[in-house]
Amino acid sequence: MLRPEFWISSQDLYQDLLISVCEKYSLNLIEVHVILFLANNPGFDTAAQIVAVRHLAKSYVSVAVRALQERGLLRGQRRPDDRRTIHLSLLDAAAPIVADGRAAQERFLSILLHGATQEELDCVSSLLEKVEHNIEVYQAPDPDIG
């Protein structure tokens, strides 16, 4: 089983790799997380979804969204069918940040997976699919495991 130290050190590594993106574009880490989340998850485009999925504080996400809007990197828009929810979208000015952020994410994965064989990667992928299925079954109205 993965030890707590793994989660801490991998999160530290990920943040270390994103720091160069933060410095290059004078952004903070939460702002970069928001940009990358929106770029990598097109079906999720609200601050509430960012908070729920990334487990970031609502106040931090709110401040980051406002700052990114003021810098012309992000737009918030209400839709006619849902006037209560503000949907977020990245503007063209965010493209270089997305590119550098994704490069940092790819570097992160290459460090984590260095030396792994294709067979090992396939095994991990298969295991994660089973875990995901188990979570879905457990969260169903009438779970049959647990």
Give an overview in words.
The chain has six helices and two strands. The two termini are 18 Å apart. Helix 1 (4-25) runs antiparallel to helix 5, helix 2 crosses helix 5 (95-113) and helix 3 packs across helix 4 (58-70). It has helices at 4-25, 29-40, 47-54, 58-70, 95-113, 118-139, and strands at 74-79, 82-90. By secondary structure, it is mostly helical. The mean pLDDT is 93. The longest helix has 22 residues, at 4-25. It is globular. It has a two-stranded antiparallel ribbon with strand order 1-2.
Largest sheet: 2 strands, antiparallel
What is the strand content?
5-15%
Question: Roughly what is the average pLDDT, rounded to an integer?
Answer: 93
Distance between the termini: 18 Å
Number of beta-strand segments: 2
What structural category do the secondary elements indicate? mainly alpha
Secondary structure tally, helices = 6
Strand order of the largest sheet: 1-2
Order of helices and strands: HHHHEEHH
Q: Helix share of residues?
A: 55-70%
Return Rg in Å: 18 Å
Report the principal-axis shape: globular
Low-pLDDT regions: none
